């Protein structure tokens, strides 16, 4: 039984820009393909046992039911040898060239087969994020026009969103068919839109409803009448909506939510918006999401640039950790925290819209793999809190098994227990809305 997951991640975004001609592959930009063994050693050096990580989809998934597992075989074997538990990102802001983009109606079913093939090849993997930040992926690709299809309309946004979330749902189904005790961490951006004045209340309320759509659909949560009309007006059919409403996978999920200083927005009367900076903060917004879904929570992404003083990122780490403790003390079942990512990133200062090669000092280590002050602070934080949190009753225990204990008999026993829980869940009189805090 695992009580709290301290995590980091290897940045593996790979959207396309410039009409699909340029792929912004963060693993390449950050040197991971050449230094992956060293990167994994850095994870163990920090004392981190959980790593958000996934194979590059565009080089692994080479065609319909065609896969090149060579890189994944090496990297995941090493993770297992080091006893690092991966939270596997299967789709992180992009698709292979042969799929095209997120407007492709074939994507969900094709992706589900890819997810199953991965689960069959790596049966010891238990934790998954099938599609990372579904809302942001659809927003940046099909509403802002920045990535992939580079479209800018509500219809394109709804199309991308329904295919992305359907892909996530179908992938969960296929993974569970292989690994019945799999747990899904929905890493999703937690947003809030503040009205600049009374005239901006209407546009802000609309945006605050749209921010929930990806998780509403994923968890089978009924949307408001306004959002139902919005979805249908922009191309979703009644049958498509009811596909999502009929899903019963929520009890396999952890609501992973990401929070950065850019996650809050100031909305103007004309409906435009700009970054507002931190106003509410992580704990307030997380309480909003928890009130809606009632699921265990994990803080799945945050970072801050190391600035001229050298302590800016450390201060942000302390602030976010204080927010995690506030959420915990409020009685919410929070199960983990993540500084994202392990190393510095490249070109995220333009949200990967421009291929400038500009290094962003956001990592626990720089791109030379030298530890940053925030890396040292995170290492110390883990050492201090790891022994304390399991003794606190408000911290939820998760049935997660480290890779070193993932033997075939153990997996079979875990599968049998998971199947028994699933049968009991489906036999219950009401199984669409688990009680708040119910563990997967």
Automatic annotation (TrEMBL):
| Keyword Hydrolase belongs to the record | yes
Q: Does the keyword Hydrolase apply?
A: yes
Q: Name one GO biological process term.
A: carbohydrate metabolic process
Kindly list the GO molecular function terms attached to this UniProt entry.
hydrolase activity, hydrolyzing O-glycosyl compounds
Q: Which InterPro entries match?
A: GH, Glyco_hydro_1, Glycosyl_Hydrolase_39
What Pfam families has UniProt attached to this entry? Glyco_hydro_1
Which portions of the chain have biased composition (kind: Low complexity)? 403-418
Going by the UniProt record, its keywords in alphabetical order are: Hydrolase
Location of the region described as Disordered in the Swiss-Prot/TrEMBL record = 400-440
Q: Which domain of life is it from?
A: Bacteria
Checking PANTHER family in the record gives:
ALPHA-L-IDURONIDASE, BETA-XYLOSIDASE-LIKE PROTEIN-RELATED
Q: What is this protein called?
A: Glycoside hydrolase family 1
Q: Which organism is it from?
A: Deinococcus maricopensis (strain DSM 21211 / LMG 22137 / NRRL B-23946 / LB-34)
Q: What is the lineage of its organism?
A: Bacteria, Thermotogati, Deinococcota, Deinococci, Deinococcales
